[in-house]
Amino acid sequence: PSTNLALCVTTDDFEAPAKEVLSEKSWVYVSSSASSGLSLKANLDDWSRINFRPRIMRSVSSINTNRAILGQTSQLPFFVSAMGTLGNAHPGAEPLLARGSTRKGLHMVVSTATSKPLEEIMDAHQEEQNILKNQSPSKLAFQLYVPVDRSKALSLIRRVKAAGYQSLWITVDTSVLGKRTADRYLQAQEALDQGAKERETAAENEFSPAFGGRPVPGYLDPGLSWEDLAWIKQEWSGPIVLKGIQTVEDVKIAVEYGVQGVLLSNHGGRQIHSAPSALMTLLEIRTYYPEALDKLEVFLDGGLRDGADVLKALCLGATAVGVGRPYFYAMAAYGMEGIEKCTDVLAEEVEITMKMLGVSSLDQLRPEMVNTTRLLND
Ligand code: FNR
């Protein structure tokens, strides 16, 4: 890219360089959102509609940013969100991002829609751990899109378990793929340019590298229901997080079903149009079912672009948050250096904001350290 990495000072700064180097199709896939973009806009805007109530003179000369996620320490209170098509960002794809996460002591959620086998990603993670003499607390989690074919689902879960993934994050907001407007325009244009040609053959009816690791119609199971958790739990004894919960009602049911965590998310604004931001859902939980915050771990993702946003979520009771596109962009534009820089940018923002907020460890964050009236009142 024409921009020097040194000039990437905020996570937003990775976007333009990524656009420069990505193919049009890859750029559109990663940056697009559902319909007119309201869900994505809410994600980005809502963080700016709450503000801090910083406290002063609280002795913050040394601070600690560690946070346990499902019992596993992370050096920072955020993780890398599950993203498919990382092979389009960089030839090193998921293994490279896994190595970068390991170097920074972060956990990473590996998507079902990878461009490399899940075992190879775990190997890269382990290799990096060896290089670091196992000093990094980083762990890999696996995001599961439940396939229609139950035997495929079972064998996939078995592979995930055998490979040593720590937790299973089941995506529950993708009964169908959202209507991604920018992708539709591009597809329509391509069809017009090339003459309509049938692309999705039966052989490609998978999250295959050949398909760019994209979810394809026919793989995702619209029949997925709460009852499916029973057979999944028979195969998977580790922690389960439901990814894509958007209401307090569903958090209640999740508690009843005994999962260890929920990830409040509207899938980066890519699924349902006019979705609540995860922040809105978190506030809903605080109002109608605050006990949830003691019964399971509540994570969220979507539109987090500054370490300050991360801390706002934690003040309101989130255990940790996920960051998606900034890592995709940073990796596309600058490879490993970009991945590390993206983490450093967020880490520095977390640290300086903690100090200016008057907290020296994350467990000192409190709901009264943010003011949510502006968001709630209009
Ligand atoms: C995603 N997301 C996603 N989620 C999931 O459960 N499985 C997946 O394979 C993917 N793939 C994916 C690809 C790309 C290119 C993007 C941008 C997103 C959603 C992702 O996990 C997360 O919810 C959002 O990306 C978070 O929002 P931000 O940080 O991108 O704004």
Features:
alpha/beta; eight-stranded parallel sheet; two-stranded antiparallel ribbon
Description:
Helices cover 42% and strands 12% of the residues. It is an alpha/beta fold and 378 residues long. The strands form three sheets. Strands 4-11-10-9-8-7-6-5 form an eight-stranded parallel sheet. Mean pLDDT is 94; it is low at 201-206. Ligand FNR is lined by residues 29-30, 43, 81-85, 111, 113, 143, 171, 243, 265, 267-268, 301-304, 322-325, 328.
- What is the chain-wise order of helices and strands? HHHEEEEHHEHEHEHHEHEHHEHEHEH
Overall mean pLDDT stands at 94
Supply the number of helical segments.
15
Radius of gyration: 20 Å
Helical percent range?
A: 40-55%
- Biggest sheet layout: 8 strands, parallel
> Cofactors and ligands present?
ligand FNR
Oligomer: single chain
The poorly predicted ranges are 201-206
Strand segment tally: 12
Task: Provide a brief overview of the structure.
Its cofactor is FMN. The chain contains 15 helices and twelve strands.
